[in-house]
Amino acid sequence: METQQSNIGDNQFARLSLLDDAIKSFNSAASSVEKYYQNLENQVRALDIELKYKNEELERNLKEKDASESYLHCILNSLTAGVIVIDRKNRITSFNRAAEQLTGFKAMQAMGKTLKYVFESDFFEELDLHLLSVAETGEAVQFETEIHVKKGNRHVSVCISPLQNKEGEKHGIALTLQDITRMKRLEERANRAGRLAAMGEMAANIAHEIRNPLGSIELFASLLKKDLENLPDAKALVEHISSGVTSINNIVSNMLLFIKPQQMPDFKVLDIEQLINDSLYFTDHMIRSINSINVVTEFLPFSLTVYGDRELLKQVVLNIVLNAIQAMPGGGRLVISVNRIKTRAGDPDLAEIKFADTGKGISKADIPMVFDPFFSTKKKGTGLGLAIVHNIVKLHNGTIDITSTKGKGTVCVIRLPVWKGMGTSSDFRDGFVDGHRLNGHLYRQAKEHKNGN
């Protein structure tokens, strides 16, 4: 019995010992798990801190990227040159504000589309060939062309260059468009002035050489006519001679007027509307003789004045109106409109007189020569009309430009400085009035006008 109880006690002790070992083992494992959890928690905390730092850094980078893109976008839209960027699939990825103004297309219409989709095939001359050349050679190409937009034809300098990264990989092509219309017009005016100066000198010599014997011919013809009073047939022949002399004298007078239209000018403050109406009065009979010609005037609701010679400026208007009428033998429409053009600060505003007819038009090849003396597209024209007009406008510190489409009509635009008057002595000094220089005659006449002489 005692032995049996002893065995039971040993078994219980053994079990307790095993249980104690199991508890110790569990506690040890739990301690290990706790340490592992703490280590894991520390690692997670460290990762959270690192992730937070990375997120903040990413957010900073995104803000810097957005700021950089916004800055570059502002620079791109501030450029006076138009910039169009296309990717390797020929799709437009950038289209700045200057490109919008120059081409007449909005960026939202162009973005994501191909050049062929946005622009007609003849919008840029031989653009496909230039793009192909840049794609094959990787070298920039520059050329000048003329584009047709709603505001009129514009001369544009186009530069096509490849877009490459540091490694030389091509990412697309950039087109830079620079409006050179004003520069081209200045070049044309400079060339025209040079031609007119040379021709003027030649015309002066010819005019004087012709006029010297012309007076003698007229004198002898008049004496001969008196001697042939009783011979009507012979007298008629002499009258033809006198008529021919008169015709030649008129041509010579026009030549001299072309050379020196500023002889004894009488400059006064003139109302543009009244000037045009007075000029149209003299062409009324010619307009009435061609029933289907309709002349329309579009004036401003307020008075617009310039400082000039009334008779010379009337001659300008008459010449242009007569040219328009003669260009519409079968009838048509002539619109004469007046506008005030704002200019840069410090410069005088401009009075713009526009003559737009629906006549035969002038060929593109003839346009550069229309102001040259003796150039005419008419069978009986002397070719001095527009040359004289050009010199008169130039005398008044103005400009004259002609655009035309063969078979559709011609537009002639004259711009003259607006006269603002001279209220104080500060407005008139050193030959300047309202910010623009007067030539010698204008200066003297303006001074007399101010002093009440």
Write the layout of secondary structure elements.
Layout lengths: L1 H77 L3 E6 L4 E4 L1 H7 L3 H4 L4 H4 L8 H11 L3 E9 L2 E13 L5 E10 L1 H47 L4 H28 L7 E5 H18 L3 E6 L6 E5 H17 L5 E10 L8 E8 L27 H11 L3 E7 L3 E9 L10 E2 L2 E2 L2 E2 L2 H12 L2
Parallel strand pairs: 7-9
Antiparallel strand pairs: 1-2, 1-5, 3-4, 4-5, 6-8, 9-10, 10-12, 11-12, 13-14, 14-15
Describe this structure in words.
This protein is an alpha+beta fold and 453 residues long. It has four domains: 1-78; 80-179, PAS domain (Beta-Lactamase, 2-Layer Sandwich), CATH 3.30.450; 185-259; 267-451, Heat Shock Protein 90 (2-Layer Sandwich). It has helices at 2-78, 97-103, 107-110, 115-118, 127-137, 181-227, 232-259, 272-289, 310-326, 385-395, 440-451, and strands spanning 82-87, 92-95, 141-149, 152-164, 170-179, 267-271, 293-298, 305-309, 332-341, 350-357, 399-405, 409-417, 428-429, 432-433, 436-437. 20% of the residues are buried. Residues 422-453 have low confidence and may be disordered.
Shape: rod-shaped
Classification by helices and strands: alpha+beta
* Overall residue-averaged pLDDT value: 76
Q: CATH class of the largest domain, please?
A: Alpha Beta
Q: What Rg do the Cα atoms give? A: 43 Å
Biggest beta sheet summary: 5 strands, antiparallel
CATH topology of the largest domain: Heat Shock Protein 90
Total discrete domains? 4
Proportion in helices: 40-55%
